[in-house]
Each structure stands twice: as structure tokens, then as C-alpha cells.
Write a structure and sequence with these properties.
The chain has 284 residues and is of the alpha/beta class. 42% of the residues lie in helices and 17% in strands.
Length: 284
């Protein structure tokens, strides 16, 4: 029996119809399933997190190679199928709920085909976790945004944030025909490996607020794109204009700037703000 036939038979037996809003498109190509697992280079002491376990076909493969699998599924109907299907695997823990809202045990690897509707928040969530490697499948357009070069249409806040935290590899494209129901676009397998930041910033929290603000206007010159951020941190307009003119690369467009250049600009800005605050205190 093919994977597609087994998926259809299981869903029919439980009277389940795939939900588009939950991104329930099931992978029906066993070769790609094996390829996804191979990219994670699993060892028998690995604890693997799977987000959006679905009907458990990937989960079962992972359970045969890893020490433990933590399978998270938000749909209660699919969770019941998972519990029944995987009951013989003592090394599988099934959690029902939203991955970003529930408590998840420690893991060192992630292997998953997550719902595409949560791709962006999932990446930001994952980058705050301690893990060794993540092999994930996303829509191809989203995957390319993770590793885009400055100046390209896909380059943005997501690119800079991921670059700061991890190395990204774009591995294989997956044709949309490999899923059922068939989605509208092709997918891509990617691999994330956390690393030490490749450049220094004075305040990480403020840096990512800075990145979020300027990339809402990424086609503008930096001196103009930075104004909403300065307003957000309550810099008076007359001081904001002076600051915007003083920063490095002020006449470069945001979308053209490398992450390291953005870090340098931010550090200069923080230094100037500190000098301004010190001068204000002395004058008082």
C-alpha cells in the first residue's frame, strides 16, 4: 500500500477531512521522508522534536532511530490517531497543543514538516531554544527568505535575524505534487545549525527592535527608515534628525545593507544615545 493510500484510508476511517487553516497537507513521497531524516544525521542518543506530527508517519521513522521523540500536534482528532498508532513506541511522547504555548521538554534536534501557517513565528520561537540542528520543510518562497542575499527581493528582517543566530542551508526542493491535498506552491527542506553571532551588538533586544522597525521601510534610505525607531524610543524630533544624519551608511537603502553593516550602524547609534544622555545629565 502506498503512503497516499494509507493516509486516505486512515483519514476515512476516522472521518477526518484535512483542514486548510491548520496547513494539513500530508507528505506522500516516502523517498522524501527518508531524505528529511537523513539530513538530521540522527544518533541513538538524540532527543528529537517534531512539530505538527499529523498522522505519525515521520514520527514512527524518527522513533526507530532516536533515543526519544517529542511529537506535538494541535488537532485533537489527529492526536487520538497518533496515540493509537504509536502506542508500541515507548520512546515517543505525544503532546497536544500549540507549540508556542505549551511547555516542551528539552530536545537537541528538530525534524519536522510544520504547518506552513506558523512558519515565521516558529522560526523566531526556535531561535530562542538550545538545540544542535533542525531539519525543517517550508514553502519554497519562505525558505529562500531565510538565506536571502542583501539587495534581493527576499532579503528582510527574517533573514537578518536568522543570520545572527544560525547557519542556514537550503537543501532540496519538494514539488507540490509530493503532498496530499496538493498545496499551491512547492516546498523546500532546510537545515538550521545554531552558532555564536557573527558580529557584536550592544543590546540584542534593542537591535532586533531596530531591525523590525527599519525593515518595514526597507526600500527607503537608512536615515529615513530609522525615524520610526527613534520615535519609538522617544527621541525628540530635532535630536532624531541629527542622529539619523550621523549614522554610518545613512544614505544606503536598508534592503542593500549586510547584517554586519546593520550591526555597526546600531552600535554607533547606541553610542550616540549614551553620549547624548550623559551630556543631558551633566547639563542638569
Amino acid at each position: 500500500m502506498s503512503l497516499l493510500e494509507e493516509i486516505r484510508r486512515t483519514l476515512n476511517a476516522y472521518r477526518i477531512h484535512p483542514k486548510k487553516k491548520l496547513g494539513q497537507n500530508f507528505l506522500v513521497d516516502e523517498g522524501i521522508l527518508e531524505k528529511i531524516i537523513s539530513y538530521a544525521s540522527l544518533e541513538n542518543d538524540d532527543v528529537v522534536l517534531e512539530i505538527g506530527a499529523g498522522l505519525g508517519f515521520l514520527t514512527e521513522c524518527l522513533a526507530k532511530e532516536a533515543k526519544r521523540v517529542i511529537a506535538v500536534e494541535i488537532d485533537p482528532k489527529l492526536t487520538r490517531i497518533l496515540v493509537r498508532r504509536l502506542r508500541k513506541y515507548e520512546n515517543v511522547t505525544i503532546l497536544r497543543g500549540d507549540i508556542m504555548k505549551i511547555e516542551v521538554p528539552e530536545f537537541n534536534k528538530v525534524v519536522s514538516i510544520p504547518p506552513y501557517s506558523i512558519s515565521s513565528p516558529l522560526i523566531f520561537w526556535l531561535l530562542q531554544k538550545d538545540f544542535k540542528c533542525a531539519v525543517l520543510t517550508f514553502q519554497e518562497e519562505f525558505a529562500r527568505r531565510l538565506a536571502a542575499a542583501p539587495g534581493t527581493k527576499d532579503y528582510g528582517r527574517l533573514t537578518v535575524t536568522v543570520y545572527y543566530h544560525a547557519e542556514v542551508e537550503l537543501l532540496d526542493s519538494i514539488p507540490k505534487e509530493s503532498f496530499w491535498p496538493m498545496p499551491e506552491v512547492n516546498s523546500m527542506i532546510i537545515r538550521l545549525k545554531p552558532r555564536e553571532p557573527p558580529f557584536h551588538v550592544e543590546d540584542e533586544e534593542k537591535f532586533f527592535s531596530f531591525i523590525r522597525a527599519i525593515f518595514t521601510q526597507k526600500n527607503k534610505k537608512l536615515r529615513n527608515a530609522i525615524m520610526p525607531f527613534l520615535s519609538e524610543i522617544r527621541i525628540p524630533k530635532k535630536d532624531a534628525v541629527s542622529l539619523a544624519d550621523s549614522i554610518p551608511f545613512s544614505y544606503r537603502r536598508v534592503r542593500e545593507m549586510m547584517p554586519e553593516e546593520l550591526g555597526l550602524t546600531f552600535n554607533h547609534l547606541i553610542k550616540r544615545l549614551y553620549e547624548m544622555n550623559s551630556a543631558a545629565l551633566k547639563s542638569d
